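Lab notebook, bench 4. Continuing the backlog of folding jobs that were queued last week. Each job is logged with the same field layout so the records can be merged later without manual cleanup. Today's entry covers Quinolinate synthase, a 297-residue chain. Filled in by technician R.K.

JOB TYPE: sequence-to-structure
TARGET: Quinolinate synthase
LENGTH: 297
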Amino acid sequence: MRKEINSLKEQKNAIILAHNYQVAEVQDIADFTGDSLELARKAATLDNDVIVFCGVDFMAETAAILSPDKAVLLPAAEANCPMADMISAGELRVLKERFPDAAVVCYVNTTAEVKAESDICCTSSNAVKVVESLDEDRIIFVPDKNLGSYVSRFSDKEILPWEGFCFVHDRITPQDVKEARNLHPEAEVLVHPECRAEVIDLADGVYSTSGMIRHVCSSPGKEFIIGTEIGILHRMKKECPQKTCYPLSSQAICTNMKKTDLNKVYNSLKDLTPQVVVPEEIADRARKAIIRMLEVR
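JOB STATUS: finished
OUTPUT FIELD FOLLOWS
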C-alpha cells in the first residue's frame, strides 16, 4: 500500500500533509507532519498540483483557501471538528453587531464561513501574538473559551470568549494531572492551551503540539507527561527516541483524527476525491483573515 501511494503521488504531482494527531501509519506516509500553523504555512507555499490533507475538514478548507489553483483532497470526508461546528457565521455576525468596536479573532478550528466573518485567524501556537498585534482593546475570540482564557493571561485586552471547546482537551481534569504525577514523579507535565485553566495551572509548560515536540527534543529532561491527543506520541518517539513520554490521559483521543487510514489515502489519490472546494466569495474573505495571521511573527 505504501508503494502504491508513493507511485500515485509521483504520477499526480501530489504531496501528503498530516496533522500530529493522525494515526502512526498515516504520519509515516506523509511528506510533512505538523500542527495547524505549520500545515497552513506549508499549504501556502506548495508547488504540487494535488494536496492530500490527512486531518479534519477545517484544515483541508484552509489549504483550499490558500491554494485555490490546486486540488485539495480530504481522504476521510466525514472527519469533522466538533469545536468548529460550535459557532456559525450567523452567530458571529450577531456578536459583531453587539460589540461593533471589537476585533474578531477566530481560531483556525473554524469553518470557512466563520473565517470570512473574522478579522484575523490564530492557532494555539500564535494566539497571544495575534491578539497583541491588533489595535483594538476589545477582542471577540471564537470559538474556544479555554484558548481565549489562556490568551487573557498574557494580554491586557478585554477578551470576549465564545463558549466552544475541544472535547478531547476540555475533559482532561486536575485529577488526571495529579494521578500522572504520582505515577511519574520525575516527569515534566506539558499541556495544550485548549485545556481548562485549572489544568494549565498544574502544568510545567503550555505548548501547541509541535511546540511540545520541540520542547521535549531540546529539553535536558528525560521524562514527560503529554497533555494532548495521544497521536502526538508517535512523532515524539520518532524524533526524540532518547526521551520517555507518557500520555496525561489515555482517553485523550480525537475520533475524527483517527478516521484517515492508508486505504483512504490510496483511494483519494487514485480517484482525486473527495475534493474540498470553498465558494470563491467565502474563500476570498476568509483568505484575508488567514494571510493576516501568517504575517504575524
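OBSERVATION: The chain has three domains: 2-80+257-277, 84-165+286-294, 172-247.
SIGNED: R.K.
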